[in-house]
Amino acid sequence: MSRFLRSPWAGICIAALGLGLMGIGIYRGEMAVAWEKAVNICMECIGIG
Asked: Alpha-carbon distance 16 to 5, whole Å?
């Protein structure tokens, strides 16, 4: 396992896994929920909402 982590393929595999999981989250609509919560928090900090 440690030989794999030192190889150049480790970073590529981890990046591909991360992109795949991000794609699944976007497909499920989780990005819209996170964006809505972020906007609400910012509005509350500024004092507009």
From this structure: 15
Encode the chain (49 residues) as per-residue pLDDT tens digits: 677 678 888 889 999 999 999 999 999 999 999 999 888 888 777 777 5
Cα–Cα distance for residue pair 39/49, rounded to 1 Å: 10
Indicate whether this model's pTM tops 0.85: no
E strand map for the chain: none
Place of tokens 């981890």: 14
Q: Which two tokens stand for residue 24?
A: 């699944």
User: Computed from CA positions of residues 46, 39, 14, 8, in that sequence, does the dihedral angle turn out positive or negative?
Assistant: negative
